[in-house]
Amino acid sequence: MCLADLEFDYINPYDSASRINKVVMPEFITEGVLAFFYLITGHWCMFLLCVPYMYYNWKQYSQGQHLIDVTEIFNMLGWEKKQRLFKLAYLIILLFLAIFWMIFNALEDDE
């Protein structure tokens, strides 16, 4: 949303970058904790689906590319929007798979 607001000049680049950069580390930590819970509870398929996302996040963090630079935000606007939408779609797919398996297991145990 911040990137769309920035594209239409509703918000300045500094505010947009600071809002986005505030949620980057909690996003990484949340995905890592979720993958760890999948691992210790024995949900191997869900854990394996989380591994590419965690690897991508780790690679960005280790290269120092995980934060948005205020001075380069307009140059990278199209790429950042595509990247954020892809990540959102990936997380939504993981959420629906988790809900599906939870309902499937609850119904299987009930019979």
UniProtKB/TrEMBL annotation:
<protein>
    <submittedName>
        <fullName>Cornichon</fullName>
    </submittedName>
</protein>
<dbReference type="GO" id="GO:0016020">
    <property type="term" value="C:membrane"/>
</dbReference>
<keyword id="KW-0812">Transmembrane</keyword>
<dbReference type="Pfam" id="PF03311">
    <property type="entry name" value="Cornichon"/>
</dbReference>
<comment type="similarity">
    <text>Belongs to the cornichon family.</text>
</comment>
<dbReference type="InterPro" id="IPR003377">
    <property type="entry name" value="Cornichon"/>
</dbReference>
<feature type="transmembrane region" description="Helical">
    <location>
        <begin position="35"/>
        <end position="56"/>
    </location>
</feature>
<keyword id="KW-0472">Membrane</keyword>
<feature type="transmembrane region" description="Helical">
    <location>
        <begin position="85"/>
        <end position="104"/>
    </location>
</feature>
<dbReference type="GO" id="GO:0016192">
    <property type="term" value="P:vesicle-mediated transport"/>
</dbReference>
<keyword id="KW-1133">Transmembrane helix</keyword>
